[in-house]
Structure formats: structure tokens, C-alpha cells
Amino acid sequence: MKETFYFQHDYNATQDPKIMALIAKCGLAGVGMYWILIELLHQQPDSKIKKETYEDYINFYGRVDYENEQVLNKLKQVLNKLKQVLIDVGLFVEQDNFIFSERVLENKKQREILSKKRSLAGKKSAEVRQNLTSVKQTVNKGQQGKERKGKERKGNINILVSSELSNSDVVSSEQNLTTPKNISDNFFNNEQDRNEKINLLIKKNNWPEQSVKQEIAKFISYWTELNSTGKKQRWEMEKTFEIDRRLATWFSRAAKFAPEQSRFINLDNL
After folding, report:
1. What is the pTM of this model?
2. Least packed by Cβ within 10 Å: which of 99, 110, 151, 206?
């Protein structure tokens, strides 16, 4: 399945001084062009594009079908101005004939950090499960040995007690990996877990696939917004965060704004 990368779109982005400066100089059309370019930069492996390509994108997405030469000349002036304003206000950086965004670089950096955390959690989970299996096998052998007599029986009992303690410790570790926090972390950072949840929502509720994916994208964008320090995401700031309950609430509210779709979803199945 093709990987989809959800990047954060701040709900108060229009209050950013840089965005405000862009609106003042180029209007809302400038903001639309900015977000198009942000999407394109996220798609680049090195998160940057040549300045010539940058200008071509603006010309392409800013084109209009007019035959009036005066209108076309005016549009050309507007687009040329926009190319420079986006750099002048600090939304994009020009360096060595390339254009990039600090915002995109930070987004990808955070994504890499979360990906490493996910990988580490997966390895730890596998180790715990492997240890748990080994301990259970040892426990079974110890239980069989309880029927033996003398020193052999005594030795097996000691092994059994030791194994039971180890089993308890491993079970505890296993349970820690299935806490609401870890389940939520896997949802936000593990595409496989997220896709399983999406498929489950579609299957159980008969909601249109595209509608579910759109709401999931909004859900992720909202809850993964970084705090002012840039170290924690919104969901991590909550005292408790149960992903299923949060999704149920989110889709319940979404249904209120889409009454024609609400009949397709059964929130009890979330």
C-alpha cells in the first residue's frame, strides 16, 4: 500500500506573522499557492526544489485561461511578485539556487524521530513475546517435573518458582506495551496499525472509504500538532488518550456536519 504522509497544518496559521505579511501583499491567492508548494516540498526526497522549478510551479498553478493580453500581463506581474514575496517574508528559503522550507524540514525530522520510536517499540514487543513463549515452555516442563520424587522433584520445583516469577515479569512488560499510550502511539506512527483501524471503520460502519480517510487525516493533523516547545504532540499532552474513544467522538461530531452520511455509521462499533 502506498505510504501517505500527513503533515501538520496549524489551525491558527493565518495568525502567523509571515502568513499575515503574505496576505497583505498578495491576498488569499498567495496563501493557497504557499500550501501547494508546501505539499510539493514534502514530496521531494531532499525537501527542496530548484529555483527554476519553484517558479515553474507558481506559473503552472497560477495560470488562467484568458485571451486578454492586458489581463495576462497583469497576472504575470502578480505571479512574479508572489515568487519573491514568499521568500522575502521568510516562508521559503533560497540557497544555492534551491528553494526549501524550514517548516518542511522540521516536519520530516519529527517524522523520522517518531519512525525510530515505532521501530524500537516493535522490536521490544517482539522480544517480550519471544521471552514469554520461552518462559511458558519452561513452566510447562517444571509442572511435569512436579510428579518426580526426591532431589529431582525438589530441583524442578525450584525451577517452577523461578519460572513463575519470570513469567509474571514478562507478562507485566507485555501489558505495558498495550497501554492506551502505546496503542495511540502505534496508531499515529505505524501506518499498518492505522490502515487496520481505517479498514475496520469502513467494514463495520459501511461508511464511504474516502470519507473515513478524510476524517482520519483531519484527526491525525489535529492531534499530532506540536506544542509551543516542539517536543510533544497535542495527544501526548492529554492526561489520558484512548484512541478508540477519541475516534468515536470525532466521527460523532463529523456526522453532525454531514447528516446525509450519518445513517451509514454505527458509532457503537468504534
Report:
1. 0.44
2. 151
